[in-house]
Amino acid sequence: MRYVSTRGQAPALDFEGAMLTGLARDGGLYVPETIPTFTETEIAALAGRPYEEIALRVMQPFTGMDEARLSDLIARAYQNFGHDARAPLKQLGPNHFLLELFHGPTLAFKDFAMQLIGQLFQDVMTRRGERITIVGATSGDTGSAAIEAFRGLDNVECFILFPEGRVSDVQRRQMTTPSEANVHALAVKGDFDDCQAALKDMFADHGFRDRVGLTAVNSINWARVLAQVVYYFSAATALGAPARKVSFTVPTGNFGDIFAGWIAKRMGLPIDRLVIATNRNDILHRTFATGEHRKEGVSPTISPSMDIQVSSNFERALFMAYDRDGAAVAQLMDELKQNGGFPVSQGAMQALREDYDSGSCSEEETAATIRAMHARTGETLCPHTAVGVKVAEEHLGESLMVTLATAHPAKFPDAVEAATGHRPALPERMADLFDLPERMTSVPNVVGDIQTLIEERIN
Ligand SMILES: *Cc1c(COP(=O)(O)O)cnc(C)c1O
Description:
- Pathway: Amino-acid biosynthesis; L-threonine biosynthesis; L-threonine from L-aspartate: step 5/5.
- By secondary structure, this protein is an alpha/beta fold.
- The protein has helices at residues 15-21, 40-44, 51-63, 67-78, 110-128, 141-150, 169-176, 192-204, 206-212, 222-238, 256-266, 283-290, 314-321, 326-339, 346-355, 363-377, 383-393, 413-420, 447-458; strands at 3-5, 30-32, 89-93, 96-100, 132-137, 156-163, 183-188, 214-215, 246-251, 271-278, 292-294, 341-343, 356-360, 400-405, 441-443.
- The protein is built from 19 helices and 15 strands.
- The chain is globular, with a radius of gyration of 21 Å.
- The two termini are 37 Å apart.
- Bound molecules: pyridoxal-5'-phosphate (PLP).
- The site of pyridoxal-5'-phosphate has 16 residues, from helix 11.
């Protein structure tokens, strides 16, 4: 299986190459050259199988990896999840289900991809006899998922930059309580944009990049998208696919999670609609409403993991909608950078609308949905999931609807308590989070100082 860039100018790579490279050299994102498909019989055979087995069947054709080796890495990746089903379903209404993706070690869906990527990286580095340094910037969820995935692994050193004082207590403690020497939580005196800017500068410093073996695990990494394809299969087959069609509503920010659903559909899974749910940072919803993709400022919400101005993985959907025309995508991305937006061609808009719907949810509606669901079903939703449920309810139809529950409510206790009057408790297996000692290093918002610290730590 070969991977090509969405901008058409970077060399094609194999799975391992695409995973280790992250962003393509022409600034594009890697996508598979062809998408493998399953027959109805093959899909039907997945129903009721363990999550790990479904993961092996779905991912193997994309990786070209030896089955036994991939199977072993998958088993390690999901062994610390707090639920045997890994991604269990819960019923909200006659035709509406919740897919709980928050039973991983940091209580958000990012664990599905990050835990696997940790194993894949370690495997490759051990075989090559090389070491890498992961540096990431986070507003909360990605950093804790990365630290949890890389803690204690050989050949990998992991540094996470987060804005000091601007992540939730749970998020901070998930980053600062792991005691393994290879993980480093760095509290930057600045905001999330400062952390991201510092990271960008480090990647642009080629000398530093080569000296430390700098690698990124941000959401544009193809291996992360691939790991997320699996739960569309596990959910749909559990609910009767391929005999029944299923729609999915996905709380969306960077478009990685919902694009995984699109891949599942192209592999032959009978997905009816893929519904994009945004909070008031609604660049994607506006694109579908107006045919124009245009940036606006970010405004903070109670669903912070979806507070984005640029939705990076949307580039992959555009590449597909423009019939894999890399030159056209490169031009659009140029316009986005120069002019802050671009009109999507009529043909591409039509192609997008064949698969996706969209909706957005205000702050008041998010809180009202948390409150109403709690009263009507007893379910406590995290604010991101509430955005999904509200938009899903506007799109209920013939086919079954599954809304992705992207985080555990205890990760966002203040917003949930404000809406329901009840403070959600952490699952028992992590109830000691607030008793463990914290370990972090405060760093100034000066990229040179951060680089010096990183080089000292790894040598
Ligand atoms: C990252 C995140 C999202 C958004 O997912 P994308 O793949 O960026 O669209 C939604 N909810 C939660 C809780 C997240 O952490």
